[in-house]
Amino acid sequence: MTVSGNRRPDDKQPEQKQRGPVVLRGEYRNETSTTDQRLLDSRGPSDWVHTDPWRVLRIQAEFVEGFGMLAELPRAVTVFGSARTPRDHLEYAQGRALGTALAEAGFAVITGGGPGVMEAANKGCSEAGGLSVGLGIELPFEQGLNDWVDLGINFRYFFARKTMFVKYSQAFVCLPGGFGTLDELFEALTLVQTKKVTKFPVVLLGSEYWGGLYDWISNTVHTSGKVGEKDLALLHVTDDVDDAVKIVQEAWRAWEEAH
Q1: ∠ CA(83), CA(85), CA(89), 5° rounding?
Q2: Could you tell me the pTM of the whole model?
Q3: Burial letters 111-129, b for 16+ CB under 10 A, else e
């Protein structure tokens, strides 16, 4: 009997089959076509564009696009805050003043590209002649990039977008915000605490809003031994825009001296 492909002389299937780096055993090896056949066949359903392997390519594309566009970004600070802050609110004015101050200090400003505090920071930066960057995210209930973004990318995946925030920022400044702001805040703190990123100041702008959170971390989390004294020192609470920019500048100078 002639043996062809993976067939055995007794016509039984092999105990395992390989699909590139993937090993298939048991019932999973019973495939009626190969990867090449499925690639070249234009007929049949298009469900494959919604499969996880295809999503991997989309994820890869988001990283490639983000790295390619932001690779030559000057030193930058990411500003977080609520998308729901109205334009006539004090926090909007503070975000705009922060964007202006950072631009005048030579920093690009990165935000999530949305409305509210994000728009305010982008606007202040752009008006001061700085580079205003927006990293948007596909959401079911919020619009696209605000009009004050000079350089923008829209992401499908939060984790790809969050990588860009950390990779291309020298600091985070958080104005009052909701779950999204809290998510970014604690991720940044975790990355600094575990030394995944080097010196990276995290500034909380607005003591009335952030004071309760800081007190809880200090009086409950720290007192119960869940974080150390050095971890607590990673957070800076202030009401003053100039003080926030000063913290960012000092951290930047310290980083330059160390490198």
Answers
A1: 160
A2: 0.82
A3: bbbbbbbbbbbbbbbbebe
